Amino acid sequence: MHELTEDDKKRLTEFLGECLHEPYWHDMRGTICYKCDHSLNGISDMYRQFTTWEDLGALKEKLVETGKWNDFDEWAYMKWDSLKPFNDLSRRLEEQSDWLFTLNRFCWLVSEFLRKEQQCAETWTQPGHQHIHVRSHQHRPVERRE
Ligand SMILES: [Zn+2]
Fold first, then answer.
1. Distance CA 6, CA 55 (A)
2. Which of 116, 99, 101 is nearest to 11 (CA)?
3. Which residues line ion ligand 1, judged by CB < 5 Å?
4. Regarding predicted confidence, which is higher, 96 or 69?
5. 33 alpha carbon to ligand 1 midpoint, in Å?
6. pLDDT above 90 covers what percent of the chain?
7. Cα 119 to Cα 6, 53, 116, distances in angstroms
């Protein structure tokens, strides 16, 4: 569980505003990316692999920077709540933070969050499918008024 797929890694790399490199061979410069023009000599991964705490930190900073942190935090909290219900409120916050700040799980949750946000945006653009945000990414269909 919480293993990142290649699609997850690409989604997260793009969210960070970084290039999904497309290598091509340049006679003078060796392997370079045709999209961003960076030299890819010696680089084996074409996008971030999300295996370090630095990756987690970059995602956290980006969520804050883009104003998505509160939505994400709330969504992750609901996710945690549904997986692991506790009655003891005093332990709840500390255990949730511990649960959240686990490298694989955190990156996976951000990817899930972004994927649902994308689905949500697509739903919005379909005529006749109005939704209102009840809480972040939980939707309640709105009755159409004739
Ligand atoms: Zn590139």
1. 15
2. 116
3. 19, 21, 33, 35-36
4. 69
5. 5
6. 57
7. 19, 28, 5
Q: What's the CA-to-centroid distance between 112 and ligand 1, angstroms?
A: 24
Its pTM stands at 0.78
Return the number of other C-beta atoms located less than 10 Å from residue 3's C-beta: 8
Residue 83 tokens, joined: 């997986």
- Answer yes or no: is pLDDT of 138 > 50: no
Structure tokens given for 51: 């295996």
- Report the separation in Å between the CA atom of 20 and the middle of ligand 1, taken as the mean of its atom positions: 6
What pLDDT score does 95 carry?
80
Helix ranges, the chain (H): 6-15, 53-65, 69-83, 89-100, 103-124
- Ligand 1 mean position, distance from CA 39 (Å): 8
Q: Are 20 and 46 in contact (CB under 8 A)?
A: yes
Per-residue pLDDT band for 141 (boundaries 50, 70, 90) equals very low
Q: What pLDDT score does 71 carry? A: 94
Residue 47 CA to ligand 1 center (angstroms) comes to: 9
Q: How far is the CA of 101 from the centre of ligand 1 (A)?
A: 29
Where is pLDDT greater, at 38 or 98?
A: 38
